[in-house]
Amino acid sequence: MEHRIDRIKKLLHAQSYKLTPQREATVRVLLEREEDHLSAEEIYLLVKDKAPEIGLATVYRTLELLSELKIVDKINFGDGVSRYDLRKEGAEHFHHHLVCIECGSVEEIVDDLLGDVEKIVENDWGFQVKDHRLTFHGICKQCQKVAVESSS
To answer: For binding Fe cation, which residues are annotated in this chain's numbering (predicted)?
Structure first.
């Protein structure tokens, strides 16, 4: 974790920002709960445990800054809530998600599935792709299993 915090600190410094204690507390929560796709309010409650003096507005500003610097990705799974996801170290693109419409679970696909699609878009439309996001909405294995069991 310390290695990633040092890397984020360097990214901030390169853009003339500091890793303040409040920003560091926010980054630590994101690192500790990396698989959870937390909302700003959830992050705030967890950060408040580490830094009781922090305000919700500070957490929002920190998340927006980290998003602008492409340290975190702001995502929405269609439920009207913005969630924040740390960009994987060394990743060129945002990773993909599988969202279950039954239970709301979210799984990540780390593999970049769209390399060929990007080349087609760039060649056929002359559009320079900088990033992409792909979210599949469907029914997860567990919910499919429950549906099969309840219908038998």
So the answer is: 132
